[in-house]
Amino acid sequence: MRVTGAVVVIAVLDGGSGAELARRFTAAGAARLLIADLRPGVAEDLATELDRPDCHVVGVSGDIHRPSDIAALVSTAVKHLGPIDLFAVAGPDGERIVQLADLPDHLDPLADLLALLGEAIGEVVPQQRRSSPEPAAAA
User: pTM of the predicted model, to two decimals?
Assistant: First the structure.
């Protein structure tokens, strides 16, 4: 995976942390980073800490469980940073990086991105959180 010069989006799920992942991307030579965290202010503070002339970092609040938030993240990243190369998901059970060969300026392929991110979320969220209890049978 080529990181040098890449535009990277990191989405942090509940119970996850994007700080170490963001530090690794900046150390590996990413050109621009967008960090999204569910907790207001967390991504923004991390972006302020990591932003430097050779790697512009933006922090926003967002929840990638919602397709509208993913669309907004993609739109914000493309508008402020350029086409996305890598989309990383950080969850309580680790991280998953999705490589995007080419993301057009329009969001027609959003369904494909949603499918990829859905798989990534499934891999980094603990099994007990993913499975929902069976509905109670009607009496």
Answer: 0.78
